[in-house]
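Entry 14. Ran structure prediction on the chain below.
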Amino acid sequence: MEAVIIEQRPGITIVNGRPYMNDAKGNLVPAENVRAEDKLQDETVRKIMGFARDLSAQIARFRSHTVADLGSFDSLLEQEYGTKIGGQKGNRTYQTIDGCLKVQVQVSDQISFGPQLQIAKSLIDGCIMEWSEGSRDEIRALVMRAFNTEKEGQINKSDLFMLLRLDIRDERWLRAMDAIRNSITVTGSKEYVRFYERDTPKDEWCAVTIDLAKA
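Output, structure tokens:
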């Protein structure tokens, strides 16, 4: 019985000296049966993904070093003054002496909404149904966006918070707003580090972009 010799290469499996490629179903397809453009696409994606993995790892190391460096500086200040830098939520700003480089740490609360939100939606729907046709159309549109009625169970947090700022004295509306507030639960927080620079202290700050979509 002939021995089966298997060798693995990126995207290629060599079986007894013959190259095969795995398809999406896990089948081995002889490489000569794969179209040239598909092979080129496979090669291009693997090349890009190699750079992407390296860059992702580099960014992870950079963030780790940044957090550690800022943490060390914070510890020195805490030892010197007996208090931590930053406000109640932990937001901090660090700046060079010349006022041209800045690092900001912003802490954002992560929130979820409880079952009271459905009560709020029911009360709001009752208000809208009784409003005369054509009146407060902008509020109707805002409610539609906030509760994203085309996608069951989803909400738009920014539009939902806009509802809380509306000055409407209807009793049911006020109860609905109370229900929204009572539905909000802070489930955690996420820390964001942002970087800015400018040529002179009189210039506007420009963000040093690390987000690939904004680079």
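The CA atoms of residues 11 and 42 lie 8 Å apart. Will compare against last week's run tomorrow.
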